[in-house]
User: Which sequence fits this backbone?
């Protein structure tokens, strides 16, 4: 006997399958705008993102500075220095890493974003996140040693 051929386009299961897949993907990776604020630094937008395994806050400041806050770390990227990632550092620096080439002091913008993020974390009851109150500076890490790729878009952390 021969194989039985079925046309998946004729049945409703094809559309149902793709509709369910689209719904799951869009619900599991969607960002939700929580706060939009005009400041001296530009428009600051705070988003929450809940994936299946992770919750995080994403902050975008006029498409020039981006912050990612999750339970493990707080990171920052700037359009002016796309090849660098700044990670929030808690406590004093060791003497060998005390140079300004390894750290960056918190700016007024950083303080504004981090304090507002702490307030959002408190309102969401995301207690597993470390608050920025104890942070002393950003530790600088080179992400792209050969410069930021030309064909890559400066976008939120993925």
Assistant:
């Amino acid at each position: 006997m021969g194989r039985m051929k079925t046309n998946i386009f004729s049945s409703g299961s094809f559309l149902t399958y793709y509709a369910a897949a689209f719904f799951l993907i869009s619900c599991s990776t969607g960002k939700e705008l929580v706060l939009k604020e005009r400041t001296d630094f530009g428009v600051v937008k705070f988003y929450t993102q809940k994936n299946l395994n992770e919750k995080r806050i994403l902050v975008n400041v006029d498409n020039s500075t981006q912050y990612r806050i999750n339970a493990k770390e707080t990171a920052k990227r700037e359009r002016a220095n796309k090849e660098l990632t700044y990670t929030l550092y808690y406590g004093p620096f060791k003497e060998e890493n005390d140079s300004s080439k390894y750290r960056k002091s918190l700016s007024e913008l950083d303080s504004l974003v981090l304090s507002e993020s702490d307030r959002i974390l408190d309102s969401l009851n995301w207690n597993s996140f470390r608050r920025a109150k104890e942070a002393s500076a950003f530790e600088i890490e080179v992400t792209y040693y050969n410069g930021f790729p030309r064909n890559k878009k400066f976008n939120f952390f993925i």
User: Anything to note?
Assistant: The chain has a mean pLDDT of 78. The first strand starts at residue 31 and ends at 39. The beta strands are 31-39, 42-50, 55-61, 65-70, 74-78, 84-90, 103-105, 135-142.
